[in-house]
Hints:
The chain is α+β, with helices and mostly antiparallel strands.
Amino acid sequence: MSKIASLAEALHQVRRRAEPLLLRVAKRGDVEFIWSCLLLLTLFTLTRPMFATSVAEEVFGAPVVMWELVNKDVQGLLRAAQRQRPYVPRFVFVLVPTALVLLARIDVRWSRWEASNALRALVMAHVAVLTWAASTYDYNMYFNQGHWVDRAALVALAAACWWRPLAAGPFTALSVVSLWEVSTIGLGHDDFDWRPLVEVMMLFSCFVWLSFVKRLNTRHFIFLSLCLVGSYYYAAGKAKIFYGPTWSWLFDNHTSNLAMAAWQRGWFGFLEESTAVAVTQFLRHLDFTSGLYTIFIAEAGAILWINLHPRLTRWWLLCAAVLHAGIFLFAGVCFWKWIAMDLAFWHFLRYGGAQVHKEVFRHKLVPVFGLVLIFFSVERTYFNPTTGVSWYDTNHNELYHVMAVGLSGKRYEVDPNFLAPYDARMTQENFCFLTDEPHLTAIYGQTGNHKVLTKLADARTAQAVENVFQEHKRDCRSEAKAAAWDKLISSSFSNTNLFGRKHRWLSWIGRPDHIWLLRPSPKYQLQEPVKRIEVWREVTLFDGESVLRLDNKMIHEVEVPLAR
Length: 564
């Protein structure tokens, strides 16, 4: 017993001496900061799946999408009660934490947080971009629905966000639903264009719901937001470094091929071929330099620039915006939402929120914590960066042209924007799933095969391309996607034959396109009813001096009902 008593006394002495040390550690500013961030990050991680609402196609066939979603949630709860099984409502869940904050009578105003005016400007910049993108899309001729109530509700919630930040949760949930409308037709569509902005708004919504935690303040939200945004760039840069043979994207890839592919698809299509060739040849000299800039300055380097010094963070945000501006200039792919996000954060850090950001760097462990967060963010659940932002740009291209055949038998090229709000998906023109014929490269001449890249770089004749094709061809046919395509085309053009294009004024106030084309050719503009849609595939090769057109043939057709 004496040994047990001695051991107990020793443990008591250790605890008595350790408690003050633990209390001192817990009260350290950097430890408190990290714990506050972990609390916010935990709620953010747990609620993301519910924000990313999965919406069935038939829901968008209803006049009011919100009502259909609420009705589905109620029916789900009733079925769960009958079967005695748990059910989490995917859309109305945002009302629960919002209602709890209201019932707790917590006065959630912008003024409760430090740098309140600058914080409001930052958040409202994200709100404005998402509102523009999610409420001004063209009338949907596929569903023959305008969803006017949903648009009005989104605009009203955007205005409410300016008044009270508590509206951010419902606004974000509805904007996600509206943005996902283009992805519910069975063809698939990447949300990379807008995902980081929505993620920032999700994080802010959780930040607002945790308003009862008094120590949680603007600096915690800003720190995690920058890490979140940085994780997207870091994941893209890391993917490029390790894509195929390590460093092959930097040393073997020619991003200048992207400019030529974009010209063939219609970007600056009014230029003469000789001019496009001259521009591509000039850009070829900048391939390695632009690759260094992309990886080390704008993308993978983000992990350092965000966590070393406030000035470097501001500098990096401008460099990231410049990267997107360059992509738009030479390829016509406009990441305008990303540019707006980068500039909004830059403005916050440069002006009203500069002092708040400096407070982050006052804690020595916090930048280390930021490095760890971004480094381990790839394929984790707390952040959700797109990891596959890497490919090789070849000099081979497979172009797809959608042609409308009128009653007279005359053919008109269909502008991808004619099929808005599915214009981004149509503009990508990756329609290999419509044919049994194998293919070699994807949109913009992309490939994931390093051998294909190097062999095509040496190809100068049709026979050389055929040899590569026979060795590396791939099948892309998808019956499910082909059926979805046929349904989209048949319904959209059938409704257009019957009703014409409705509410075309929306395109006057609509958000900028994600992929731009400036191709001068006769377009279908309701000259006559359409009886058939044809898809033609054109195969080309840029040999360094000119564009060789190797093949051009029809691969698919869809009959369009003239009346129902």
